[in-house]
Write a structure and sequence with these properties.
- The chain has 109 residues and is mainly beta.
- 13% of the residues lie in helices and 42% in strands.
- The protein has a 6-stranded antiparallel sheet, with no helix packed on it.
- The longest helix has 14 residues.
- The radius of gyration is 21 Å and the shape is globular.
- The termini are far apart.
């Protein structure tokens, strides 16, 4: 078997990348706001990623102005029993250590 020339292999890889469909990351649309427990300053997450655990140090007012459910956890790794889920356009006043945004369930069929 003949080795493939490096230039041809590079061209083939570049061509594959050019015609392959781009993978799109899913993200919430909107903002998620909370107050940092240590600095007492407001924090705004704009279009946060779906299904990704986001560690926080939140205490106080929380506003979910996204199109996703925000599940709030007491641990920084989205583990343990959730404190609750904040629906799109929901508000709360509590402390939590991490959040995960997910698509709200659709209506039953």
């Amino acid at each position: 078997m003949k080795p493939v020339p490096i230039a041809l292999a590079t061209f083939g890889s570049a061509l594959l990348l050019a015609v392959a469909p781009a993978a799109s990351a899913q993200a919430a649309t909107g903002t998620f706001r909370y107050v940092n427990a240590y600095s007492k300053l407001p924090v705004t997450l704009t279009n946060p990623a779906d299904g990704t655990c986001i560690a926080t140090t939140a205490f106080g007012a929380v506003t979910n102005s996204t199109n996703r459910d925000a599940t709030l956890y007491p641990s920084p790794a989205c583990q343990g029993e959730p404190l609750g889920t904040l629906a799109p356009n929901g508000t709360a006043n509590l402390a939590f250590a991490s959040i995960m945004l997910t698509v709200p369930p659709g209506p039953p069929s």
